[in-house]
Design goal:
Length: about 210
């Protein structure tokens, strides 16, 4: 059993992840920006913590992270505004990694996206560029850190029912149900063989636990 901190606790994936972790006996704290979402988050079995990651400095983040065993970054600006995308998906994420290192909380799981690479191929004039650039910068910082990191990079997220199965390094957009992404996160936390790995995946036919082992 572990104490697990989820950044982006009101996101669709996080709301599916929290009950999976609670059912496994973990103590889950979910960081959310809007106090109006506290009841919905609490209903998952997680303890809501209202804090705006965009404005928290390193010391404040270290205080939030300290005392946990695992950090899951599932926060994001949601696209649209490039300035806020960089502020959340890159800068706040990187501050949280540095805070985890400073607090001695070494296990860190990043929820990224399947195309997060240095050569992601998104042009600067594309509205998606800020997200692609920010996610790659955050992933690269994590991979270079002293943390026990795992980068989980799903393809296009859907609202389809969970299948319990995925495919690694799929062709195309790698569409995958959010519920299966939540299952992959929970499985990665439980499996130290995922440390220091970037796992790109989409929907498929291989049982999740076998696929990531």
């Amino acid at each position: 059993m572990a104490r697990i901190l989820i950044f982006g606790g009101h996101g669709r994936v996080a709301l599916l992840l929290a009950p999976l972790l609670v059912a496994r006996g973990h103590t889950v704290t979910a960081v959310i920006r809007n106090a109006a979402h506290e009841a919905e988050v609490a209903a998952t079995g997680a303890q809501p913590l209202v804090a705006d990651v965009e404005t928290l400095d390193a010391a404040q983040l270290e205080n939030i992270v300290g005392g946990n065993d695992v950090v899951v970054w599932s926060a994001g600006a949601g696209g649209g505004d490039p300035v806020r995308t960089y502020a959340v998906d890159r800068d706040a994420a990187i501050r949280s990694m540095d805070a985890a290192s400073a607090a001695g909380v070494l296990r860190y799981v990043m929820v990224s996206w399947i195309g997060s690479r240095a050569d992601h191929g998104i042009g600067r004039d594309d509205s998606f560029f800020a997200y692609a650039d920010a996610k790659w910068a955050a992933d690269a910082h994590l991979a270079a850190s002293d943390l026990d990191w795992t980068i989980l990079a799903p393809g296009t997220l859907t609202l389809d029912p969970p299948t319990g199965r995925i495919e690694l390094d799929p062709a195309g957009r790698g569409a995958v149900p959010r519920a299966d992404v939540a299952d992959v996160i929970a499985a990665a936390i439980a499996d130290d063989a995922t440390i220091a790995r970037t796992i790109r995946f989409g929907g498929g036919d291989e049982i999740i636990g076998h696929a990531i082992a």
